[in-house]
Amino acid sequence: MKAAVLVVLTALIGVAGAAVPPAERMKGPFLIASTPYLEDGSVDYESLVAEAKYMDESGCTGVIWPQSNDSIDLLTHEEKFEGIRRLVDAAKGFRTAVLTIGVSGTNTAEMLEFAAFAERIVSDGRSGEDAASPLVALAARPPTGGTTEREVRDYYEALGKVAKRPVIIQTFVSDACPAPSVAFLRELAERFPHAYGFVKEESEGQRANERQAEEREMKPPIKTVYSAWGGWQWLYQFRQCGTEGLVSERPAYAPLVARIWALMKNGDPDGRLMETYAVYRYMIDQRAIPGGSLRGYSLYYLKKLGLFSTTLSRTYLESKVTESGTFGVGHAWKLVDLELTDAQREELDRNFADMNRFLERTK
Q1: Which end of the chain is more exposed for a tag (fewer CB within 10 A), N or C?
Q2: In Å, what is the CA distance from 247 to each residue of 32, 33, 219, 225, 310?
Q3: Distance between CA 297 and CA 321 in Å, rounded?
Q4: In terms of DSSP H, where are the helices of 179-321?
Q5: pLDDT (tens digit, 9 = 90+) per residue, 303-313?
Q6: Residue 85: which of 128, 107, 55, 114 has the closest Cα?
Q7: First to last CA, the chain
Q8: Rounded mean pLDDT of the chain?
Q9: What's the rounded Cα separation, in Å, for the pair 213 and 230?
Q10: Residue 165 and residue 89: Cα distance in Å, rounded?
Q11: pLDDT band at 347 (very low <50, low <70, confident <90, very high)
Q12: What is the per-residue pLDDT across 322-332, written as a single tens digit (0 to 9) for each?
């Protein structure tokens, strides 16, 4: 998923709302919620909350929203603010997940506006030590309008000065905006140890593996390195590059992703990791189904699960849909529904049933 640095305010909420030390919770699968829409194109906040609860109940360690390269900029500020309010309230009942609030902006000023709002909502009038419960981490892409290293540096330094909580940094946004160097990521983690040191490494191909290995060697102050790109290299990167989690828009497969992480974390005692990961890879690799797996046919599963009421998406008037997201220009959008043939639905239904039987058989 090509996106700039991921600024995420992450609410670390433990059982019964108890605050938990960030470093112990900032590992594992942090899945990005897909934005649900009603028939009139407005955001379906009830479904958004249901989706977040589903990921938590499935055992995922993190829930992220609003984030993604999936036309997230077609949401208004007011829509993002309302969704954040709803999720912060819902997260008070989370069992395992860290609520992670995306505060990415096109520039530093916009990012700081989102960060300030998220801090206010999470603090909710509390003061002193209580203001950090639930704890919140920030995640932001580098400025989507950025084109220079100076802009990226200024952006993260500004956030580091105001962030009270962990910050997940996503390392790629576009070819026009430079990715933060590994040296700069370490510098940030040393200068702002309360916030930085959590890296979603989203370089392409072998370069991602090389950077992840470099980042791993910088522990501490680097704390957690996450795999990206939907988990295409997740198993390799866990074994060979030292990643300790995944950040991706894959909410429809939350139980499977949580199972993979449990096997990774526990040392794969029954030898099921390869098989479980292979099932996941098959589920996200239905190349004959339109729309790609980032959102695309995953919407069919989210509706099948009873979480979404539609399979509608906002998309740019002129856009390109890829496995990495939906790309376009401007904020004008149209409402598009997922269209499937009978054969495609039959295949998705069969795969879904097979996945659930596998999870039941191997639990």
Answers
A1: C
A2: 7, 11, 19, 10, 25
A3: 12
A4: 182-191, 205-216, 234-236, 254-266, 273-283, 298-304
A5: 999 999 999 99
A6: 114
A7: 30
A8: 86
A9: 19
A10: 18
A11: very high
A12: 655 666 666 78
Q: Return the bridge partners of 62, or none.
A: 30, 98
Return the exposure string of 300-311: e unless at least 16 CB atoms fall within 10 Å of the residue's CB, then b: bbbbeeebbbbb
The residue type of 205 is G
Structure token digits, residue 49: 């909350």
How many CB atoms within 10 Å of residue 109?
11
Residue type, 313: S
CA pair distance 303, 166, nearest whole angstrom? 33
Q: Percent of the chain, pLDDT > 90?
A: 63
Bond from prior residue into 221 cis (ω within 30 degrees of 0): yes
Strand stretches in the chain, DSSP E: 8-12, 28-32, 62-65, 98-102, 138-140, 167-170, 198-200, 224-226, 245-248, 312-316, 319-322, 325-328, 333-337
- Residue given tokens 């102050």 in the structure block: 221
> Crossing angle, helix 273-283 and helix 254-266, to 10 degrees?
150
Summarised one tens digit per residue, pLDDT across range 239-250 is 999 999 999 999
Enumerate residues 6+ apart whose C-beta is below 8 A from 225: 199, 201, 212, 215, 216, 241, 242, 243, 244
Average the pLDDT over 146-171 and give the result. Answer: 88
281 with 258: CB under 8 angstroms? no
**Dihedral sign, CA of 133, 118, 53, 287?**
negative
Q: Which amino acid is at 200?
A: K
- Report DSSP letters for 64-99, one per residue: EES-SSBSGGGS-HHHHHHHHHHHHHHHTT-SSPEE
Question: How many angstroms separate the CA atoms of 255 and 140, rounded?
Answer: 26
User: CA 238 to CA 49: how far, in whole Å?
Assistant: 30
Question: How buried is residue 191: exposed, middle or buried, by Cβ count under 10 Å (0-12/13-18/19+)?
Answer: middle
